[in-house]
Structures are given as structure tokens and as C-alpha cells.
Amino acid sequence: MATANAAHSPSPPPQPPIAQTPGIRAAKFQNLFADALSKTIRTCSYSKFSSCFPTPSKYAPQTLTSIWQQITTKVEASAKKEFEEILIERDVVAGLNELERLVGEAKSRKERGVEIREPPHTLPPERLYLAHLAPYLQRTEMELDGELKRLQSENEELVDSIQAQREETEILVGNLERFIADLERANELMNKEVEGNGIKKELADVEQEMQAVGREAKL
After folding, report:
1. What is the spatial distance between Cα 133 and Cα 136, in angstroms, rounded to a whole number?
2. Which among 30, 18, 20 is positioned nearest to 141, based on CA atoms?
3. Range 54-62, long-range pairs (CB < 8 A, 24+ positions)
4. Cβ distance 50 to 68 under 8 Å?
5. pTM surpassing 0.70?
6. Residue 92 class from Cβ within 10 Å (0-12 exposed, 13-18 middle, 19+ buried)?
7. Which pLDDT band holds residue 216 (cuts at 50, 70, 90)?
8. How far is CA 72 from CA 12, 67, 153, 197, in A?
9. Residue 63 has pLDDT above 60, yes or no
10. What is the model's pLDDT at position 201?
């Protein structure tokens, strides 16, 4: 009897879980992020980075290359980690996959001119929940797109700020190098002046006389 009642139950079998493999919308969203991040990283190329430090670039290129690689790698890894955390926290992949399925079903029904209605009480809770969640998922997708563009803009501003600071540092280093060079030239001129006036010879004669007096005093 229980078997017969189960066979005529209006409740459908449990729906399979939503696949976490990105669908078309989720894949496009992830590709959009990857392209934006790649563009941001390319903005801080090694040629631009090294142009801010001509002296280290000339005398220590390997060290400068290593520093540049560490900076770009850290920025890229940090951005990817934050993006993945957002995807997991908001279950974006599953939501976009379900949104894609719902949109596909609606489009197919519209093209066929057929409206298929299922009794709400026969639908699984997850499907009912996602049906009500579809508008929210669309808004979330738009918000994530806006947040992604904002992060891209902030990263570009950060790169410009770092480059400006490096240019300022290079100017200060250049001024310091010129100051040291001026001191060296002044020292050379003073040495020549001392030698030209015979002061150095007079100092040597005085030193010899003092040494002679010291020897006589010992005797």
C-alpha cells in the first residue's frame, strides 16, 4: 500500500544539486575579472618600473627585476584571492548558473508559445527559493561588475601613485649624487690649493723639526 501511494505521489523526485562548474554567465564574469586584472598588471610593466630607477636598473638589474616581480605577483595574488572569496561568500557561480537556467527556460517557453506551469507545491524548496532569488542575483551581478571596475580603477591609481613616489625618490637620489660630486670636486680643489701654496711642505718641515727637538731632549 505504501508503495502504491508513493507511486502516485505528486511530489517530483529530488532535483540534483546545482553544478559548481561555471556556466556561460559565470565563465564570462570570471573572464571579465581576469582580463581586467591582467590589464592592471600590464600597466605596471618592467620597462615603466625600471625607468623610475635608472641607477639600480643599470648596476643591479637582477635585483630590480626581482623586486618588480614580487610586487606584481603580490598584487595579482591578492586580487585573485579577494575575488575568489567574494565568489564563495555569495555563491556567485551557483547563482549565475541557476539564473542562466531560468532565463533559458523562459526564453524557450516564449519561443514555443507554450506556458508550462507546475503546481508550486510540487516544486522543491531550492527551486522556489532560487526563483525568488533571481532578481537579487541579477542585481548582485551588476554590483559585482561595478565593484570590479572600482577595484580596477583603484589599482590603476595605486600604480600611478607608486610610480610618482619612485620618480620623486629618483630625483632625491639624483640630487644627493650631485651633492656628493660637488663635495668631491671641492675637496680636490682644496688639496690643489694647499699643495700650490706650499702649506703641505711647511707642515712637513715643522713635523721634522719637532721630531728633532724630541730626540735632542731625550739625549
Report:
1. 5
2. 30
3. 54/170, 55/170, 55/173, 55/177
4. yes
5. no
6. buried
7. low
8. 52, 9, 16, 59
9. yes
10. 64
Residues making up the chain, counted from first to last: 219
SS3 content of the chain, % helix, strand, coil (to 5): 85, 0, 15
Nearest to 48 by CA among 213, 164, 174, 190: 164
Distance CA 209, CA 151 (A): 79
Collapsing DSSP to helix, strand or coil, 48 comes out as helix
Sorted by sequence, the CB contacts under 8 Å of residue 92 that are 6+ apart come out as 26, 29, 86, 140, 141, 144
User: Is residue 124 within 8 Å of residue 15, measured between CB atoms?
Assistant: yes
CB 100 within 8 A of CB 29: no
Half-sphere exposure of 170 (CA within 13 A, CB side): 15
> pLDDT digits over 106-126, tens only?
777 777 765 556 655 566 666
Q: At what angle do helices 61-89 and 125-196 cross, to 10 degrees?
A: 160
CA 34 centroid distance within chain: 12
- Residue 158 and residue 95: Cα distance in Å, rounded? 32
Nearest to 141 by CA among 80, 107, 100: 100
Whole-number percent of the chain with pLDDT over 90: 0
Question: Hey, is 205 helix, strand or coil?
Answer: helix
What tens digit of pLDDT does each residue of 88-111 get?
A: 888 888 888 888 888 777 777 777
